Amino acid sequence: MNLIEKCLGVLYPQTCCFCGKVSKEHICKECSEKITYLEEPVCKKCGKPIRYEEQEYCSDCQNTVFFYEQGKSVWLHTGSVRWSVYQFKYHNRRIYGKFYAQELFRLYGKWIRENKIDVIIPIPLHKKRKRKRGYNQSEVIARHLGKLLNLPVNARAVVRVRNTKPQKELSHKERTRNLRDAFRVTKYWNERGNVLLIDDIYTTGNTVDSVAKLLRQKGANKVWFLTISIGQGF
Ligand SMILES: [Zn+2]
Ligand SMILES: [Zn+2]
User: What's the gap in Å between 19 CA and the centre of ligand 2?
Assistant: First the structure.
């Protein structure tokens, strides 16, 4: 730790990513007892928790054909996790992205290597939204993760060309329509290999799968995803 970092540590002490209280670790003792990491059984496709091992897939994945291969998340999107991701996205707690990436690396580093990922691509924000927020939260995670894995991050390969409404405000049908033609590849897309998409939350999978579909149409081999949190699968 250099002097500047020491001074910053006094001015801005590290806080727990799940309650905001000053804490030596990224997760304080109280929260570490409360927060549950996703555990088996989870859906073999999207990674949502499911009720029974024999089920294999959640009800969404049983009835849908996705363009991505498989995805995984760290936590269920509820309680303190929901709070944490909200602060990370809307209250400039970019610093949480470092811890999220460390957890993704710890839990799924081996899985990423096994899937022979060539490039990491964060789900883009529309440029207007990015300007307003100041950063793309998925890119923050992707950059930290790329460093840990020594893998390239291409945040310019895909752009969001339509400023879509937040998915959570829409019905299932509207969601699909909302995302149709929402993304485009750019001249910076020149990969032909396996892609790992990074997003903050996985709900219906429409966002991740729209980008997976596009990239596969444009020559990607296989597309995988990782998110921080995910909805319940039953
Ligand atoms: Zn805490
Ligand atoms: Zn599923």
Answer: 29
